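[step 3/7] fold_predict: job queued, chain A
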Amino acid sequence: MTEEIELAGITISMAFKAIKNVHLTVHPPDGQVSLVAPLGTRPDVARAYAISRLGWIRQQQAALGAQARETPRQYVERESHYLWGRRYLLQVVEAESKPFVALDHKRITLHMRPGSDAAKRAEVLHDWHKSLLHAVVPGLIDTWQRRLGVQVSGYFLQRMKTQWGSCNTVLGNIRLNTELVKKPKDLLEYVIVHELAHLQEPTHSERFAALLDLHYPTWKEARAELNALPLAS
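[step 4/7] structure written:
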């Protein structure tokens, strides 16, 4: 069971699970805060622990808030767009045909019907982003579920405001933020490994960290790189 508490203007999601130690986390990209305490911990004790860490929470949220953020995209000619960590210029071609996207070494070319607005262009580009992710995600899941000894029932792609990914340990599926298509592919792989590891260990416990240390030794560097890259506006 999860409940929310409010401390000095900070909302903290608090839960109690079968773990040994308290885990306090400030989640990228928007700085949401969660506290997971061992079963049997009195709520007032967990609350007191959160109060003692308010300074640290604010520091972490400030660091996330200082990250570079993309300016809102207008989907116009020669606008910068990112794909797998590389910058491309957008070219818009209007024609009376079904919208589609083409890629070469310098440009992303967006073919649209005349009079299309920014929202429609964004929708077509987002669908293309999902198709690119669908082309690589199943292979990565297959590789890592065998290495980790877990079974994934399925995956979903969607825009996510506060997480790069999530795992439903009951249903055995994962969700991935479509913004990952803009980041280097190794960071997509890190997020997939992170979420699959939750099928062995649901919380961010010492056991979870040990799993990542064993199977993906550079996970801390990957996490730091991902969280330092520009966020969506």
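[step 5/7] annotate
The CA atoms of residues 165 and 176 lie 4 Å apart.
The chain has a mean pLDDT of 91.
exit 0
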